[in-house]
């Protein structure tokens, strides 16, 4: 994600970052197919086949990682200007002028160096960068808050409320396929729609759907299981089009260029921490030997979605279509979240540095 946010052109940055959830869903899709095929295999061959198949999938990312050029911003920040220019040429030529792109990168790095010397993880929490770090952390919280941890366990959850295991696995696979399609639509949405409305409308829709699932939890039976499966699928669609890709766009656009990798690491730790906590707490709400809430668990996630919408309204700014330098200037001016959209840059293009 750091690489995408540093190298993608401004007009494509949101759409490119929106592909991150699609990659996650592709992994879940392949994994769910393997589980479905190994579901009735008895003995050690079942789990050996499931684990062994995953080693094949790392070959393609390894080859791509070895062949793609290094980030020009990273090379320039490290003082390797010639290598940075060559990487810029590989990434942007001939459609864009590599020298113009290098000037923008150098101007952005130079402005950030005025505010922070010797970037470390602690720099992310200094006064100049704290707001940006907290926004990245909030964006990382969003997948957990809209219920991704329960959606990823939908097969087990549906079994608890009365659906056969084979049917629940098919529902899981279908849900992942629908999620991939929704994320593909989300890529288009991120290139056309501003981040704030996409995230807020998506969270609003998810709130209504989770609340509907909570209401259905007052009844039991096969019909309720089918209704719950349908609502979970709709939640995947609503979140896959808006808040999920939108959260990754915000993560990639908010942090400063020099602190991007470190801020993303801090946000990643926050995301994993909340995901682990949710994976630990949620089963106590819906398991029969604990809270036994069943479908009424939807009320909890509806509340989290509503809280997420309020936090996003007050704290997440609109950065669609902004260059790194413009984003730096807006944060330097300490503009309010709702003022970012209407701010006009004080200079159209950054000057070349001597």
Automatic annotation (TrEMBL):
Keywords in UniProt for this one? Membrane, Transmembrane, Transmembrane helix
UniProt domain Major facilitator superfamily (MFS) profile: residue ranges: 1-320
Q: Where in the cell is it found?
A: Membrane
Which InterPro entries does the UniProt entry name for this protein?
MFS_dom, MFS_sugar_transport-like, MFS_Sugar_Transporters, MFS_trans_sf
State any GO CC term: membrane
Predominant location: membrane
Q: Which residues cross the membrane?
A: 47-68, 168-191, 198-219, 225-244, 265-286, 298-316
Q: Is Ubl conjugation a UniProt keyword of this protein?
A: no
- What topology does the record note for this protein and the membrane? Multi-pass membrane protein
One GO MF term: carbohydrate:proton symporter activity
Please give the family membership noted in the entry: Belongs to the major facilitator superfamily. Sugar transporter (TC 2.A.1.1) family.
Return the PANTHER family for the record. MAJOR FACILITATOR SUPERFAMILY (MFS) PROFILE DOMAIN-CONTAINING PROTEIN (PTHR48022:SF41), PLASTIDIC GLUCOSE TRANSPORTER 4 (PTHR48022)
UniProt protein name: Major facilitator superfamily (MFS) profile domain-containing protein
């Amino acid at each position: 994600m750091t690489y995408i946010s540093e190298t993608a052109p401004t007009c494509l940055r949101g759409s490119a970052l929106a592909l991150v959830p699609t990659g996650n869903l592709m992994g879940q899709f392949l994994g769910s197919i393997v589980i479905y095929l190994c579901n009735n295999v008895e003995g050690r061959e079942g789990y050996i086949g499931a684990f062994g198949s995953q080693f094949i999938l790392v070959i393609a990312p390894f080859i791509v990682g070895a062949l793609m050029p290094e980030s020009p911003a990273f090379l320039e920040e490290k003082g390797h200007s010639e290598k940075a220019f060559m990487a810029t040429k590989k990434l942007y030529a001939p459609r864009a002028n590599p020298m113009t792109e290098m000037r923008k990168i150098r101007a952005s790095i130079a402005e950030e160096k005025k505010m922070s010397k010797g970037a470390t993880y602690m720099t992310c929490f200094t006064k100049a960068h704290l707001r940006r770090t907290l926004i990245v952390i909030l964006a990382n919280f969003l997948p957990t808050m809209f219920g991704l941890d329960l959606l990823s366990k939908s097969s087990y959850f549906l079994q608890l409320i009365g659906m056969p295991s084979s049917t629940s696995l098919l529902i899981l696979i279908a849900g992942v396929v629908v999620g991939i399609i929704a994320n593909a639509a989300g890529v288009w949405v991120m290139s056309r729609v501003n981040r704030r409305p996409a995230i807020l409308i998506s969270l609003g829709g998810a709130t209504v759907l989770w609340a509907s699932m909570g209401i259905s939890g007052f009844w039991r039976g096969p019909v309720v299981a089918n209704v719950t499966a349908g609502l979970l699928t709709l939640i995947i669609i609503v979140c896959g089009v808006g808040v999920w890709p939108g959260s990754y766009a915000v993560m990639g656009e908010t942090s400063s260029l020099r602190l991007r990798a470190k801020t993303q690491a801090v946000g990643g730790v926050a995301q994993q921490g909340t995901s682990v906590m949710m994976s630990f707490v949620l089963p106590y709400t819906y398991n029969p030997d604990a809270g036994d809430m069943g479908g009424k668990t939807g009320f909890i996630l509806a509340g989290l979605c509503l809280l997420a919408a309020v936090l996003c309204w007050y704290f997440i700014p609109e950065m669609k279509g902004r260059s790194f330098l413009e984003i730096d200037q807006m944060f330097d001016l300490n503009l309010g979240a709702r003022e970012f959209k209407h701010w006009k840059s004080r200079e159209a293009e950054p000057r070349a540095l001597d």
